[in-house]
Write the structure tokens for this entry.
Amino acid sequence: MTKTFRVTGYAVNKRGNTAGIHYDVQATSTEQAMVSALRLATEEGYRFVRLTSAIVQEADHA
């Protein structure tokens, strides 16, 4: 069963500045969420990506 993870970290952008990054990804485990976020960050042109946390997002039951 897939869950939504909020993955956060920081990376170097195309200008050479350090930027905070975060992604909401669908995955079955924390490790898969980190791999997906790393792939997305590199596709967007970030370098030296460091992912610091992956937190499961709770569903709203409103």
